[in-house]
Structures are given as C-alpha cells and as structure tokens.
C-alpha cells in the first residue's frame, strides 16, 4: 500500500521527533489509522498472550463454536450469510472493576498474563493520547481526562478467535463496522491475514501495529 502510515515510537526521543509527530498528525488527518512499531511491549509478552489465547480456545471454546455452527446449519449454507460474525469471543473487563477472576475456564497463568498485558496496553494508550494532545495543542492529559467517567475510564479486552470457515465465500469473518470508544488496541494474529480498513477522508482515528499489535483511535 503506497505511503501507508508507519510510526516508529523510538524516534520520538531523538532528532526525528518533530518529523515523527508530523507523520502522526498526517496519518490522523488523512488516513484515519497508522501502523506503529517499537511500541515498548516486548515480543515475548505478545507471544505468550497469543499462545495462551489459542490454547484456551482449543481446550474450552472450539467444541462449543462447532456446536453453534451446526445448530444454525452454517456448515452447509448455500447462500451468503449477512447477519452474523464468524468469531468465537469472550470479554475481559479491566477498569473500573476487573472481572478476570470471574471468567470461567481460564487457567491462573492466563489470568496473570492478561492482567500484566492490560497494564502495558493502558500505559501505551495513555502515551498515545498525550501525543495526540501535543499535536492538537492541548495540555498533557486532556484527552485522558475526557474519557474518564464518574468512576474513571472503562477499559476492557475482547478476546476473539476466527476458526476456519467451510464456506468463506458465503460467511464473512466480521461484518463491516466501526468501533465505539476512545482508544482501541488490537492484537492481530500474524498467521491469519484478513484485516481490512476503510481509508477515511478526515477525522482523528489511528491504528497501531507491531508484532502484530494494532491500536485504533
């Protein structure tokens, strides 16, 4: 893709800071998303999250998804299905109150890893919000405060798996959609491609990617 926005966070601490900030500004104004590398979350942490997520799906969710597909007759559809997403998901809530201890079937290692991962993502999201504040001429922390409710920010993780589909030409992975909220971070599977984005004419949105982590504003 020609001139796809690519932001290297490491360059913010060097002589290329002004150029990097200008690239962020241009990406937000003209693309609506950008790819971010060197975001500070170690690759080994991302690898562990990916491994445990896939193990949890295989052990606890795969059979349930197959039963759901069979019950809806989706394994033998003849016409395009437009009213569902082909995904198996569960949700973790981190703030204002965590529900990680309440999610059934999660092993202790997975709960611990996801708590640590959430803290790292929260820190990264706040860093990016402050960069956006700087580009907008706002005081540091302005956007963070804007997203606070009466109990503080709402922050959670949607964990999604996209199993092989017997009729991919008839059942899409996810229907076209826009996401609600402020900062959205997406950890994309680097072994299964398919993420598609609509290039916007204007607006403040961004997408972040590295091994393969994505952020959406």
From TrEMBL:
Alphabetical list of InterPro entries matching this protein: DIOX_N (IPR026992), IPNS-like_FE2OG_OXY (IPR044861), IPNS-like_sf (IPR027443), Plant_2OG-oxidoreductases (IPR050295)
UniProt cross-references to Pfam families, sorted A to Z: 2OG-FeII_Oxy, DIOX_N
Non-haem dioxygenase N-terminal domain residues: 5-98
GO terms assigned for molecular function: L-ascorbic acid binding; metal ion binding
Superkingdom in the source lineage: Eukaryota
Annotated ranges, domain Isopenicillin N synthase-like Fe(2+) 2OG dioxygenase: 159-199
Keywords: Iron, Metal-binding, Vitamin C
Keyword Metal-binding found: yes
PANTHER family reported in the protein's UniProt record: OXOGLUTARATE/IRON-DEPENDENT DIOXYGENASE (PTHR47991)
Record's protein name: Fe2OG dioxygenase domain-containing protein
Naturally occurring in which organism (per UniProt): Glycine max (Soybean)
């Amino acid at each position: 893709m020609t001139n796809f926005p690519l932001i290297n966070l490491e360059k913010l601490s060097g002589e290329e800071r002004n150029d990097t900030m200008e690239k962020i500004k241009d990406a937000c104004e003209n693309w609506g998303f950008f790819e971010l590398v060197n975001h500070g979350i170690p690759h080994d942490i991302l690898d562990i999250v990916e491994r445990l997520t896939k193990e949890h799906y295989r052990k606890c969710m795969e059979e349930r998804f197959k039963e759901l597909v069979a019950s809806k007759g989706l394994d033998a559809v003849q016409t395009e299905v437009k009213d569902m997403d082909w995904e198996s998901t569960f949700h973790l809530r981190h703030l204002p109150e965590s529900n990680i201890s309440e999610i059934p079937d999660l092993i202790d290692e997975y709960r611990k890893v996801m708590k640590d991962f959430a803290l790292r993502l929260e820190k990264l999201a706040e860093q990016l919000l402050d960069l956006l504040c700087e580009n907008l001429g706002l005081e540091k922390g302005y956007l963070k405060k804007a997203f606070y409710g009466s109990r503080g920010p709402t922050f959670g993780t949607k964990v999604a798996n996209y199993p092989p589909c017997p009729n991919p030409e008839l059942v899409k992975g996810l229907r076209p959609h826009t996401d609600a909220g402020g900062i959205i971070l997406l950890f994309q599977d680097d072994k299964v491609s398919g993420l598609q984005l609509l290039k916007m004419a204007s607006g403040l949105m961004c997408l972040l990617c590295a091994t393969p982590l994505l952020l959406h504003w």
